[in-house]
Amino acid sequence: MSTAPGRTSHAKAILDPELYSKLANTSVLLVGAGGIGCELLKNIVLTGFGKITVLDLDTIDISNLNRQFLFKKKDVKQPKALVAAQTAAPFNPNVRIIPIHDNIKEPQYDIHWYQQFDMVLNALDNLDARRHVNKMCMAAQVPLVESGTAGYLGQVQPLLKDTTECFDCIPKPTPKTFPVCTIRSTPSQPIHCIVWSKSYLMGQLFGEDEDAIEELDDAEKQGENSQEIETLRKEAQAFKTVRQALRNKNANDAAKLVFQKVFNADIKNLLIMADMWRSRSPPIPLDYDAILDGTFKAPTHTKANGTAAPNMNANGNAVASGSGTNTNGSAASSTSTSANNNGATTSLKDQRTLTLKDNLELFISSTDRLAERLRNGEETISFDKDDDDTLDFVTASSNLRSYAYGIEGKTRWEVKEMAGNIIPAIATTNAIIAGLIVLQALHVLKKDHTKLRNVYLQFKPAVPLSAIRLSQANPECGVCRDTYAPLLCDPARTTLGEVVKGVMGEEWGEREVSVYEDKRVLSDPDWEDNFESTLESLSVTRGKFLSIVDEEGEWATISLAIANLPPNYPRPLPVENEDGVIDLAPTPKKPRIEPAASVLMRRLEERQSPSKRRRLEADGLVVMDGPDDVLDSGEVAGVVGVDQGGASEVIVIDDD
Ligand SMILES: Nc1ncnc2c1ncn2[C@@H]1O[C@H](COP(=O)(O)OP(=O)(O)OP(=O)(O)O)[C@@H](O)[C@H]1O
Ligand SMILES: [Zn+2]
Question: Catalytic annotation on 181?
Fold first, then answer.
């Protein structure tokens, strides 16, 4: 394909020539090739970012096609990263796109790997992956542009270590939770029954064989009604029998057994506790055979004050609300959810109001299908909005429960939205956000930090965008306030003691420190049993962080990012010992380059001065596990980044 002048003329005209030529040598990592990712990949390819690595763990689903326009129907089930790269590559032949079909959390994407990029652009859909990439970017000192959309709302946030706050500086709200007893005994809204079905009932029947007793003990400690807890304990015991029936090839009435236990016996047990139903409407035990043969006559649901419960029609059927309101109370557009592209027939079927008998029949058929899957070797099955068997089961069982409690029913469509926490995905929102990401990325590239903005797309037609100056880091942040250093070592041979003593140097014995990997304590001032253990035996391996925390709080936490040794690192030779066993010989010693701790020590002494401290944090420290580890200059540059100012220093752990 020819490089016609027209292809680049717009980008050249908009960007100044210097920036445009810089783009060609810019290497970016794009994490996520979904809704935002597809738009963004197109943008950065057309803008002319020279080298783009696009990483996504997923394959293409038919429901992605309405907005992830780099994919076509023929690509369904293919890796997103691969197809996105193939489709976008011809947009600009001057750009090199490297696709990776993988989880960004895999250990090979270590600090060293991140440092090859000039910046990282996140186009993810979950908190866990976002927090992971944030931490890696903070450790590797690589600028990150974070983004997200929810319906008509969106946000773009540039995050630079020591310049702005990081993604974790402000704790994120945790998803809404419900008290255990509301879910287990006293639901009052459809969502309570849906959560019960997908998180509790599915787990009890099709999940791992766990003891639910602990959760109940906790609930009791938190002051929940002890008689009620006792009833729930009995309920948990009875689950064992139905679990066995579901897995037994000869049991053909497993669905009925589950029904009898959950919608009849358990409810009868709860009714015994008269106290519980003084101020609320008691549930109704359901009758399997009577519902199937159409003779089931439910007693009228009455509240304590004698009024009829809402949303029950004359035939005793639960009535779907049809309101299209999701769990958060926000309106869910029926035309824009990712689930809405299975064709009109499915949509109609899914949006149909289900009668009590419909729900029971759906309950029987879905329980049978799930039981069959268990009998065919699936060990556990959990809810997945795109797994029809589980969606049918959750729809039917939550509606049956709603019926028993006099709560309105929901259509399969509504249950999918509520149980799957589906927030409408709007292609235009993704496109606007992807455009804003590029603008922020260009400021990052120009190092024009005063122009960086936290940009919000809001549901205000008069002011759709608001751009806010970036906040400073939260001094208490446990992620971006740490002092990071890459630790290049062989975790199978390096011991915890070597690392800690090496880093502490002369301060060892003077200063009391504790050592952590994530939330695990590996040593504290009075407990050093792990010092002789190798990092590998302590599961401190590539991609993880070893944190050394000063008990006095005078030193910033030192977080060592475990990375691979460079390819030129001398490997130990296998030697035979006197018993004829092949041992790995220790690496031969060479003179130490510098006493292990003095470099770090000097810098930590300087940490009272903010500017010096920033310098320390900006420097990379290469901590090696033996005195032979002389890196060539290229490797050193590769480890700490080339434009961080000043030569990096190599710390050698003294293992004498
Ligand atoms: N840990 C991870 N590693 C790599 N890619 C990830 C990771 N977590 C999420 N992603 C990817 O981020 C992308 C987010 O895109 P998007 O929000 O459009 O989600 P989706 O899964 O495509 O759509 P939907 O959730 O609406 O069905 C997805 O393609 C997803 O595979
Ligand atoms: Zn932070």
Answer: yes
Mutate to test the pocket of ligand 1, among 56, 69, 147, 384 (most ligand atoms within 8 A of CB): 56
Short-list 455, 492, 435, 408, CA closest to 154 = 455
Confidence grade of residue 97 (pLDDT, cut at 50, 70, 90): very high
DSSP string, 595-629: -TTHHHHHHHHGGGSHHHHHHHHHS-EEEESSTT-
Q: How many CB atoms lie within 10 A of CB 6?
A: 7
Rounded CA-CA distance 619/558 in Å is 13
Atom 29 of ligand 1 has which residue's CA nearest to it? Answer: 34
- Token digits of residue 652: 């050698």
Cα–Cα distance list, 624 to 124, 135, 618, 638 (Å): 34, 22, 19, 15
β-pair type (96-101, 582-584) = unpaired
Q: Is the pTM of this model over 0.90?
A: no
475: its two tokens: 């001094």
Give SS3 for 463.
coil
| CA gap 396, 390 in Å, rounded | 10
427-457 confidence digits (pLDDT tens):
999 999 999 999 999 999 999 999 999 999 9
Q: Is 309 in the pocket of ligand 1 (CB under 6 A)?
A: no
Task: Please give the DSSP secondary-structure letter assigned to residue 44.
Answer: H
CB under 5 Å of ion ligand 2: residues: 166, 168-169, 477, 479-480
CA separation for the pair 239, 266 (Å, rounded): 11
Cα-to-centroid distance, 630 and ligand 2 (Å): 33
pLDDT tens string 164-173: 999 999 988 7
Which bound ligand lies closest to the C-alpha atom of 137? 2
DSSP assigned state of 450: G
Could you give the ipTM of this predicted complex?
0.97
Q: Exactly one of 38, 137, 181, 489 is catalytic; name it.
A: 181
Distance separating alpha carbons of residues 233 and 517, to the nearest angstrom = 36
